Amino acid sequence: MAGTELAHAGARVAVSETRVLMKGDAALRSHRALRRELCFTRLGAGAFTLLCTAVSLLFFSQHLAACKVRSRAPESAPCSCPKCSETSQFRALADGGSKEPYQAFLKIACKHPPSAHDTLLMWEQNKLFGFSLSSDSATLIVPSAGMYRIALQVTYRGTDQVSSSKQMILEHHLAVLSDSYQQDRTMLSAFETVYSENTNWRKSLYSEGIFNFQKGDGLKVKTSNLRLVDCDGNVGTKTFLTAYPLAVA
User: Fold this and answer.
1) Which architecture, in CATH terms, is 99-248?
2) Is 75 left (phi over 0), alpha (psi -120 to 50) or beta?
3) Where are its TM segments located (predicted)?
C-alpha cells in the first residue's frame, strides 16, 4: 500500500516537472520571436534611412550640375539655374537685343511757373530704356504687357505765392490711361495734412505698388497742389517717377 502511494507521488512530481519544462520552452520561443521581430524592424528602418539619403544626394547633385552648366554657358543662353538673379532674367527683355532691362527714371520738369488750373506733373527723362515719354512730357508709355513695380515721390514746400492757413491738405494721384477703359484709373494716391502758419515747411510723399499693365498704357501724375511742388535745388532727388518690370511678356 505504501509502495503504491509512493509510486503515484513520483508520477505526479514527474508530470509537474514536465509541465514546468514545457512552459519554459514556450517562454523561450516567444522571447526569440520578439527579438527576431525587433531585429527586422531595425533593419527596415535602417534601409529606409539609407534610401532617403541616397535620393537627397541625387537631387542635390543634379541641381549642382545644372548651376555649374549655367555658369559656363554664354550670357545669351536661357537661365536654367533656380538661383539666377533677376538682373540676368531682365536682360533678355530689352528691345533690339540690348543688355539693359526695361526701366524708367523720370524727374520733374520745372520749366515754367504753373497756373492755378494746372494739375499734371511734367517730366524729363533721367534714365529711360524701353519706355517712352509722350510729346507733352506728361505721360510715361508702358513698352510691354506685364507686372511692373512703380514708385512715386513728390516733394512739396511752402511758398509766398500760395495763401495758406493753419491746415493744408497735400494730395496727388498716379493714373493709368488704357484703351481697355473709357476713363483714367487711379493706381496710387497719397494724402498729407500740413499744419503751418508760415512758408518754412517741406514735405515728401512717397508711395509704391506692383501693377499689371498692357502694352501702350500711359502713366501720369495729377496733383491739386502743383504750385507747391518743390522745384529748388536737385529736383531729381525730390520728385520722381520710376518703373521697373517684374514679369513681362
Assistant:
1) Sandwich (2.60)
2) alpha
3) 39-60
